[in-house]
Design a protein that fits this description.
The N and C termini lie far apart (51 Å). The longest helix is centred in the last third of the chain and has 38 residues, at 107-144. Helices cover 61% and strands 16% of the residues. A 4-stranded antiparallel β-sheet has the order 3-4-6-5. Strands 1-2 form a two-stranded antiparallel sheet. It is built from 5 helices and 6 strands. It is α+β, with helices and mostly antiparallel strands and 185 residues long.
Length: 185
């Protein structure tokens, strides 16, 4: 029973880390990366589809992404979707290829993005601490129902705290890496 609670907490904390990585991937660092376009979806024969499902996304150079739709009719649709997105990108179309030049980030914009990254990291830490709280409540409930002893409950809470510390350290590592990436020119 205790191991189930611990495994569930660890699995949920791992999902929080993955969600944080996904959020960090959305924040551009000045370098071209296909994951910048992950949240863009386009209408493909009446169905909303991810951009990567209807076109090939590649990195041309450090500051340029190229999108090659699989169908000529999708060029205009993809271009409009990129313009409507909140990414602030201006696509340039040449035949079947859409090029997206990424403007260099200013120092002020980099500092603003660092603040956003720190906020996302704090959200990740809060999510992990909430999972810890849920696991500790489950242990306390088991203790109240006399399913486990007080010693087992105390040991389980210590183990959950160790798991929590491990995942919070991972959030810190991700934050440091993203900050360094943002501040490097």
């Amino acid at each position: 029973m205790i191991s189930d609670i611990q495994q569930d907490a660890a699995a949920r904390m791992g999902k929080s880390i993955e969600a944080l990585k996904h959020e960090f991937a959305k924040i551009r660092t000045g370098r071209a990366h296909p994951s910048l376009l992950d949240q863009i979806s386009v209408s493909y024969y009446g169905t909303e589809s991810a951009l990567s499902q209807v076109a090939n996304i590649a990195v041309e150079d450090a500051r340029t992404l190229t999108i090659t739709p699989w169908e000529k009719t999708m060029v205009q649709v993809i271009e409009k979707a990129i313009l409507k997105s909140d990414l602030g990108l201006n696509p340039a179309t040449t035949g079947m290829t859409i090029r997206i030049p990424l403007p260099p980030l200013t120092e002020q914009r980099r500092r603003d993005l660092v603040k956003v990254v720190k906020h996302e990291a704090e959200n990740g830490r809060v999510a992990i601490r909430n999972i810890r709280r849920d696991a500790n409540n489950a242990i306390k409930d088991a203790l109240k129902e006399k399913l486990i002893s007080e010693d087992d409950a105390r040991n389980a809470e210590e183990k959950i705290q160790k798991i929590t510390d491990q995942y919070v350290k991972e959030v810190e590592k991700l934050l440091e890496a993203k900050e360094a990436d943002l501040l490097s020119l």
